[in-house]
Batch of 2 targets.
Target 1
Amino acid sequence: MSTIPIFADESWRLPSRGRVGMLSLIVGESGIFTIFVVAYIYYIGRSTTGPTPRILEVPIFNTVCLLSSSLTIWLAERAIEHSFVRRFAALWALTMALGIEFLAGTAIEWRTLIFEDHLTVRTNLFGTTFYSLVGLHATHVIVGLIGLSLVMIFTLLGRVNRAHAERIQVLALYWHFVDAVWVVVFTVVYIVGR
Amino acid sequence: MADQTLPISGPLGEAYPSRGTWLEWLHSWVVTVDHKKLGILYVVYAIFFLLVAGGEAMAIRIQLAFPHNHFVSPEVYNELFTMHGTTMVFLVGMPILFGFANYLVPLMIGARDMAFPRLNAFSFWLTAFGGLMLYFSIIGGFGLYGMGSAPDIGWFAYAPLTAKAFTPGHNTDYWALALIVSGFGTLGTAINIIATTLSMRCKGMTLMRMPLFVWLMLVVSAMTLVTITPLTAAQVMLLIDRYLGGHFFDAQAGGSPIVWIHFFWIFGHPEVYILVLPAFAIANEVIPVFSRKAVFGYPAMVAASVGIAFVSMTVWAHHMFTVGMTSVGNTFFVLSTMIVGIPTGIKIFNWLATMWGGRIHFATPMLFATGFLFQFLIAGLTGIMLSVAPWDWQLHNSYFVIAHFHYVLVGAIVFNIFAAIYYWYPKATGRMLSETLGKWHFWLFLIGFHITFDTMHFVGLLGMPRSIYTYEPDRGWNTLNLIISIGGFIQAIAVLIFAWNLIHSYFRGKEAGNDPWDAWTLEWATPSPPPAYNFATDPVVRSRRPLWDLKHPKDPDWKYER
């Protein structure tokens, strides 16, 4: 019978707790989104009155902005890994600008829907499900932006360097998740549901 | 090979600074981020609410002891069963399991704390304030005039009863908000346990060497991630309906109350497994130690736990056979529910095989664990009966169902929680619980349990529905209901003995020492109670039973394990 002893000097590697924690959070968040997406799909075409999803304009520019922010944040992650702090700051600011543009675009879209098409949460099932699903996603964009701006503040104070690369990557994971969820929301709301 | 050591920490002088004033002592508990203190806080919090919700159950049993009884008003009765269910699941079951996980997981894997200690404290306080918020509804939530104000919608809060039109006032909002808040706490703890288990293990603690307790807590936490979140989402929808005039569950505007039922049970059924898997986790530690044998079929136990986690996600609609699903839907959920019986059966046989031929020592923890084995088997069998859709059509929402799930929740989970407290109390406090009081507690509780819940099956078969305020004397349920209530009070006496034992032994109990049960997992290598840093030097393990290896250097486990 052979034995497989473990020696103290054997290399002992464990996954990063930050990544594991963030991935777990993402799995949990996916649960919340799944329920809202399922409700949205189930209630497509079940409204008894009022505006239908036909009134929606497909937010192509918004989508391009949000999805490209995943690219810019990835470039920022690489920049800080190689200690290019200025390039990191620029890319990080760009990422935030793209996120803010997305929120602004959503705000303009909602303004049109509310004041011109008279669609609110109260109007019909479409309104209820639309605002809650898109609003849930927008809330996540806001939370992500709060996280990003914290890093931005520390960067401007000159406190961020290569040692923080891993933490920044953990935060970036969340941002990637927010972008990935938009692909699902976009498909469901603006392609399948419309 | 000089690495084969397990550090038994030195003198305790430095580890335990003097307590200081009462205020300093209180402050140290409020600001603590130590996983052991937080674990104790969770358990104490859960035991407090166990007594509260137990009191509610007693009031329900007094009301039902005689036909046409008027011990409480019908409105208060609705609040009692709602609060009893909600409290037991969310303020007793979940916190106590996370309490044990908090206390034991880092110790068992040789870590100094959880992966995120501050998140850990934050999660506890969220859970704690969630519970306080639920009970604040009694003074804060204005119901209809004269109706009292605690939530009265049942713990599953079926739509459309929760609509603003049918439940005005704020009691439903307290229910939803309190559970959303404590749900976020639960989510935080689950993330923490996963990160701790995967990223904080000491050298040599490979996944397949982790104690089964840790394995099951990992599985439970992973399930929590995808189980609590649907409830949170559904409760947010409920609040959107109630406050923003949404129509998610509003049938008049095209919404569907059935969707709420689906969403609730997508949470609700895996939740049962989230509660019962920690009970299995406890049995996995207690049964081998008191049988003096290594657990039988470790890999099969791990596989069965993971299997239960996956299958349990696909069974929720067996709560909904009477809703009127298609026969394909019914058949699917009948079959998936029956499949759960396979991994749970594997577990039961493995525990029996662990005990088989062992030198069984029936100390109080082992008594409770043995009671669990027997009762969980019966609970599983009535579960399989109820999984058959036609049988469920007959007995849905009857006391047979109540008896079945109390057999799981009390007969399996509460029994193992007691086992765990008797088993680990010496570690947490440094003193043994009284065995004499423990035996009284066990036998009274066992007898009371069987008087109550065995009889409940029969009133259920005789047609008594759940959640009814009172009943006519000519239904033939009178004697049985009285017997059920008497059994309930025997259990209450047992629990009071237990509470007294906890307090009394804290001051007068026998000194425990490091390892009173001659056990094998790492927590017993630390002093009792363990110092804040747990291990003076990081342990190194080479098998599933590191303390066995230490105690038996000539016959260590790592020679046989692969």
Target 2
Amino acid sequence: MIKSLKATGHQLASSAFQLTVLRQEVVEVLHLPPFHQKMREVGLFPLRPVAPAVLQINVGKMCNQVCRHCHVDAGPDRQEIMTRETMQLCLNALAQTDIPTVDLTGGAPEMNPNFRWFVEEISKLGRKVLVRCNLTIIVANKKYHDLPEFFKKHGVEVVSSLPFYSADKTDRQRGAGVFDDSIKALRMLNAVGYGQEGSGLVLNLVYNPAGAFMPGPQAALQRQFKQALAKDFSIVFNELFAITNIPVSRFLDFLIESKNYAGYLEKLVTAFNPAAAAGVMCRNTISVGWDGGLYDCDFNQMLDLHVASTSQHIRDFDAAALAERTIVVNQHCYGCTAGAGSSCGGTVA
Amino acid sequence: METYYDPADLKKFGTIGEFQKEFADRFFAYYGAVFAEGALTAREKSLIALAVAHAVPCPYCIDAYTADTLEKGCTEQEMMEAVHVAAAIRGGATLVHGVQMMNKVKELSM
């Protein structure tokens, strides 16, 4: 099994080093405007939040996969896991607000030993739960085989990565055998009703390019995925979210190693779209790290860019203070503002 | 090493308007319209462009439409089959002239 950048002691495991590398390339090598300047040109700097619609909680970096593009640098060797106490703090914060959706991510969130309890407690608060499930976890071990039933019981919306509808591209990005296991898991989800018309059980897929290129139009990709998965595997799903790979962590490592770094960054900056910039997800999201730290998004979280607010930790959650914050931006944000834009829910423009 | 083709020139394509703006503007507007979704999908058009890029052959176009077909979710098999279509037409175009050669042989020979 491939190790995480952290486990190998790679320079890019350091968030400070990543931010330096990004700034050097964009500003000093490519002589392109820094992100905040580009946002100022279109009247979006400082970037301010709107009413929070999503509390995205990263419950840990442990994962059964080691994907080549992972911005979390997740893997089996990562030990950072949210404790039940921190989960309780999240529930306390949630109860103070009317944030309608809780988005659980990781790593593989299901590997957190308190995952099921957490889902149950969030459901009791009447909030929609969305789980970013990597699919293979469902078939990785017998104890996870009943996850589709568990998801169904709590009306969980399942969002799963499937970078392509064939094994070659999927396995190159996510590891050998991942495609076949993903198909098995998708069939298990379909079998309990997920993705089936009229079931009310939502199964959305995430497409992200298996390489140094941007995603094409989401609607066209969704048509292709629906057609291919139905024809080849009799699999159905609701929507496809096309997501741009953000130049952070392992994807940044891939870009540098494959000598695609400059070309990719230039492409993102050139494709800057003001409409996408206005709709970035950090404006309506609050992100919680495994240790309870608060961030504007999951990417900022991995770069240790905490929220610019007096409310820095979930134990001190203060919705009013957070509403007054300025969103922290850096060069990686060009990934969310390129072309049709990118968010955890797909394109935004 | 200096070569006639510089990959960096591809992104300067838009600057051709500096010498003749009106025609460049018309060309790029036409180009955009051609590649939009129509009776053919943008994906199908991209595969055609990839094949034509190889038939022309234009290294700028090959780079551009390799990236474009990948972005549009084409498989590597589809991309290579498109190149084979170009190769078959180019090969066929050469070979069909063999008939002209055969006609001439027959005309000249006893």
